[in-house]
Recover the amino acids of this structure.
């Protein structure tokens, strides 16, 4: 097959590589000329996982994989399948921003050949594939939906850094705007995903869209419950990690872990796709409120132990949204930063995946662990491996270590005479 992948980000590029690895001819399209040029030179612009690094040079050299930007969209006219994975996010007011994916859809429509299958993998509010993008594609192409243009939704269910592994082990959910669109999409994924990967059809594009929102919002709600348990445990002198471990020994209990906040492209964003326009949904917005409040809870926890933070030096360890990933989209480090600044603290940041220029650009004073300055409080925000093995002596004059992910063995801090506190510990 000839496949066009629109959006060569941290998920889109691995998908393009996966399809090309199955022997298909893949054209990647992105607005970022740097990504396009790097890929065409036989290198991966993203170095998230070894499989990506290993496969790109050969696939480009053999012509199975190439890239272009929007200045040359004619490749759409030759594609049998177009997979769209352009980000849809929420703005500062938590309103959904469709502008980038709308623009991509219009450009796709203007260049579509006959009988093309278009599949959206970007997470969307329920009904968007059919009622928003269906009309854009038909009006822009002059084609008829489910006659000479086929449309489906299939949510990406992978994590950055382990995309190829997840493609093999998680069922691919597929739903189209008609039975024929669903059938074609199922056939496509069976031919493009790793051999033996499960492809599961659902009744409609709407059912597929809701599946992704249901599974993502479940995690947000579950984490909010864990955070509520952590706050209760903190008020009552109980270690919540012990409680969760004991509770989860019962097979019907699957409580997640509490933390200083929730970040990433998915969990803080996609619940809004579900509840923004439906006031009858009550639990998801409450869960968002609870999880967004964990930064303030962490600051309160600090001040309960050492008093006012006004004028105090506080170090945030890890700006990435999760451990050992170079990605800080919607990281809870930013809300923690704001809460610390509001309390009057001088806020420093360290992350082995980012240089000082980046840290400054996101509002942190860079901290050098190789030439450390005095710090009163350190907060583990992202549980990078480097921090798990870090000596307490690495940070001079440290009084309190806050384990925002309950990920550190506290023994070394106890032995060093440095106070340790976790989230609900």
């Amino acid at each position: 097959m000839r496949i066009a992948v629109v959006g060569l980000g941290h998920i889109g590029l691995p998908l393009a590589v996966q399809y090309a690895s199955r022997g298909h001819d893949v054209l990647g399209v992105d607005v970022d000329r740097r990504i396009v040029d790097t890929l065409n030179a036989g290198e991966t612009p993203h170095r998230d996982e070894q499989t990506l690094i290993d496969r790109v040079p050969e696939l480009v050299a053999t012509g199975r994989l190439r890239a272009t930007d929007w200045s040359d969209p004619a490749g759409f006219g030759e594609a049998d399948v177009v997979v769209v994975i352009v980000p849809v996010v929420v703005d500062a007011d938590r309103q959904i921003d469709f502008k980038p994916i709308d623009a991509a859809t219009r450009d796709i429509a203007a260049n579509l050949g006959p009988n093309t299958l278009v599949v959206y993998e970007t997470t969307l509010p329920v009904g968007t594939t059919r009622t928003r993008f269906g009309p854009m594609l038909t009006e822009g192409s002059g084609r008829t939906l489910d006659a000479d243009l086929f449309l489906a939704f299939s949510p990406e269910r992978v994590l950055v850094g382990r995309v190829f592994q997840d493609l093999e082990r998680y069922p691919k959910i597929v739903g189209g705007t008609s039975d024929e669109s669903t059938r074609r999409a199922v056939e496509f994924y069976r031919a493009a995903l790793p051999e033996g990967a499960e492809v599961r059809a659902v009744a409609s594009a709407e059912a597929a869209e809701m599946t992704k929102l249901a599974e993502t919002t479940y995690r947000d709600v579950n984490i909010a419950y864990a955070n509520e348990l952590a706050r209760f445990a903190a008020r009552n002198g109980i270690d919540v990690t012990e409680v969760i471990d004991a509770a989860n020994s019962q097979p019907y209990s699957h409580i997640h872990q509490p933390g200083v906040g929730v970040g990433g492209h998915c969990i803080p964003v996609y619940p809004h796709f579900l509840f923004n326009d439906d006031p009858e949904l009550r639990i998801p917005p409450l869960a968002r409120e609870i999880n967004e409040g964990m930064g303030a809870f962490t600051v309160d926890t600090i001040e309960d132990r050492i008093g006012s933070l006004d004028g105090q030096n506080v170090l945030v360890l890890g700006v990435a949204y999760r451990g050992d990933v170079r990605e800080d989209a919607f990281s809870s480090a930013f809300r923690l930063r704001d809460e610390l600044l509001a309390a009057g603290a001088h806020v420093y940041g360290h992350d082995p995946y980012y240089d000082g220029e980046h840290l400054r650009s996101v509002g942190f004073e860079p901290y050098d662990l190789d030439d450390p300055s005095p710090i009163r409080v350190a907060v583990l925000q992202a549980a990078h491996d480097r921090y798990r093995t870090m000596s307490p002596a690495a940070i001079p004059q440290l009084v309190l270590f806050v384990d925002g992910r309950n990920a550190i063995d506290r023994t070394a801090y106890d032995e060093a005479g440095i106070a340790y506190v976790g989230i609900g510990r």
The radius of gyration is 23 Å. The CA atoms of residues 28 and 67 lie 4 Å apart. The longest strand covers residues 2-6. The chain has two domains: 2-203, 205-425.
